[in-house]
Design goal:
about 200 residues; elongated; 23 strands; four-stranded antiparallel beta sheet; single chain
Length: about 200
C-alpha cells in the first residue's frame, strides 16, 4: 500500500519501504481508492495512479474518490461522473452528488436527498433529510427528524420512526432507539426484541 506524506507544505506518497513513489508536488492528496488517488494542485482536483502518473488532469473544482469505477466531479458548477479514463459518462443536474455504493449514488436537490442509478435515473425520489450508503441492499434514511431504512427499490424496510440506530444490519437485525427505549428489528421492520436492557451483560 501507499501512504501520504507531506514535505514543505506539499503532499506525495511513499510505499511500505519508505520510498517516495509520488513526489511531494500536490497541495493535498487523498488515500488511494480502487487504484487512484484524488489530488489537488493549484486549487483544482484530478487523479493519479499508484505509479504517480496523472490519469485525470487537475481541472475540476471539486471531486471525490473513485467508487465502483466512477467518481463525482464538479466543473463550472456542473456535476458529472467520470470513469477511470477521465471520460464523462454521466451528467447530473443536482445540488450535490455522492459516490456510488452498490450501484446507487445519493443526490441532493432543494435540500432533500434521494438516489440515482448508474444510468442517472432517479430511482428514489429526493424526499429525505439524510441518506446513507447502501450496505447489503439496505440504506439508512432520515425523514421528519426520525430514522428508518429503505431498500434499493426505494421501498421502506424499516419506517422512519426511530431516534437512533446501533449501526448497520447484522445477520438481518439492527438495534434501534425509540422514546428512550431500545428495540431490535428485522429487515421486515418487525420488532423481534422489545425494550432491550443494554446495561445487562451475559
Amino acid at each position: 500500500g501507499l501512504a501520504t506524506i507531506e514535505q514543505n507544505g506539499k503532499c506525495g506518497f511513499i510505499n511500505t519501504k519508505g520510498e517516495v513513489v509520488v513526489p511531494c508536488i500536490y497541495d493535498l492528496a487523498w488515500p488511494f481508492s480502487e487504484g487512484f488517488a484524488m489530488v489537488i494542485q493549484n486549487r483544482k482536483c484530478g487523479y493519479i495512479n499508484t505509479k504517480g502518473e496523472v490519469i485525470v488532469p487537475c481541472v475540476y473544482d471539486f471531486a471525490s474518490s473513485f467508487s465502483e469505477g466512477l467518481a463525482p466531479v464538479i466543473q463550472n458548477r456542473n456535476w458529472n461522473f467520470i470513469n477511470t479514463k477521465g471520460e464523462i459518462v454521466l451528467s447530473c443536474n443536482y445540488d450535490w452528488v455522492n459516490g456510488f455504493s452498490e450501484g446507487f449514488a445519493a443526490v441532493k436537490q432543494n435540500g432533500k436527498w434521494g438516489y440515482i442509478n448508474t444510468t442517472g435515473e432517479l430511482v428514489v425520489p429526493c424526499i429525505y433529510d439524510f441518506v446513507g450508503f447502501f450496505i447489503r441492499g439496505i440504506a439508512r434514511v432520515k425523514q421528519n427528524g426520525k430514522l428508518g431504512y429503505i431498500n434499493t427499490k426505494g421501498e421502506v424496510v424499516v419506517p422512519c420512526l426511530y431516534d437512533n440506530f446501533g449501526g448497520s444490519f447484522f445477520e438481518g437485525l439492527v438495534l434501534v432507539k425509540q422514546n428512550s427505549k431500545y428495540n431490535i428489528v428485522n429487515k421486515e421492520g418487525v420488532v423481534v426484541v422489545n425494550d432491550c436492557d443494554l446495561d445487562r451483560t451475559s
